[in-house]
Sequence to fold (522 residues):
Amino acid sequence: MIGQWLRTNLGCYVGNAATVRDFRVQLRGNRAILLWGFYLLVLIGFTMIVYSSNSDGSQTSIVNAQQSLRSFYQSIMILLAVMINLISPALTAGSIVMERQRRSLDLVFSAPVTAKYYLVGKMLSSYRYVWMLLVLSLPITSACVVLGGATWSDVISAYIILSFNALIYTAMALLLSTLSRQPVAAIIWSYFAAIAYSIATATISGSAAVMGMSGMSRTLEAPFIITINPYFVVQAAPTFTKIYGYDVPNWLLGGLFAILFSKIMVLAAGSAMAGFAAKETKSLRIHGLIYSFLGAALLAYSVSPAISMVRSATMRGPGSTVTATGWDSGMDLMFGWLLGFLVILVPFLSCYGSDTERKYWADGLAKIRNLLIGSPSGGLPYILLMILAVYGGIALVHTQFGMSSPSLAILFWSLSFWAFMWSLGRFSSSFNLGLRAARSLHFTLMMALVALPVPFFTAMGAFSSSNSGIWDIYILRPLIGSEDNRPIAWVYGLMMLAGTLVVTYIAETNASRKGVLQRYAS
Fold:
């Protein structure tokens, strides 16, 4: 049994037929040679321009020369990061949607081929092409080593980090290619997702880089999350994370993150291609809960030691005004904002429609027994369970460091807030507009409540003061400010809970009046 499982999974990654086929297509004709030649011309031209600007020919000190060479190396690696960001999504964005347009997917799955086997093959073919581009750039980066701007250890670690980021972009594009109906839409959404991911991770990685270079730690120790953005590759390459007294290279932890991230993307793509109550959907939901717990724990573990050190040094320092309540409030804010990824998931978990396959039909309001099969009735229990998994991951790590867990007030508010967002999905679906239209309307309603008030309140100067004002009516008020927001979190949680009941009642009444629920029940 175990041997068969190992052979099956190994066959997905070694000698995958889809990978072999795509590799032959990619290297057919002169197209690949021309693209590689253009790619090298861009690298060489950029290298010559940067090197000429850094060396003015005048006499300079050894220190300044070393800084110029280091800057030269960093410019080359940033260019490679840009290339990775541009090329990786394009390689995979049209892979599945074009097969669907050619009506060849039915032919593929008529053979003894699983969705996992096929999707992994598509992803590996694109990932291998990225590695070919990185290998082609070795003569450029080797010049940095010869000149003294970097070491081979820096270059190899940086290449590994870049390749792992390319794997993340490739996996996201693969999922979006599965969900899209047109190749152009798949490409556009893939680039949009890559840009959004880069911006979000740049903020996180930038904070990690500052933490690693701060006065409290003048070594190369830094949170591993610095590796999840390709534009911080130079800073991330030599860093490590200390785990139980051992210095673990951050590129290794970043690679683990990339592999797990890619796995969840492949599972999501497989679930999108599978039918009602498929094993791919059950596996996706189980992995989602496990990843939520482990991801929250890993993030908390990355930042908790530094926070604990700063907290202890600050609270014991003379004249300090920092209180335990203030730090605990910061933990509440971290937990609340960490759940922001649910903005993308909730429309897929709450909306239903009559214009698509059976797994998206309305099958009740909320049923725990349907939590793993992917039907709309399992959406609310799954959302609440995922929130509890994130809370449990943070609480577990904070307990080890002697820090308090996020408060029950912010947990109650989070459960009520996302239940309210789920009810908006039911409301959007009750008009029987179709699944895609319902998800679009749901996302629009969420953005109207969350994003639109920000410019209005900012223009009025509401966020510049902690005093009571118009920003008290903002739906995310418990997650804003450094003061203790626990009392207001209880109040807003009760308000969100009441809003959930009201909107859900309106949605079910509207769906019943339009005959949507009766149609599905029949």
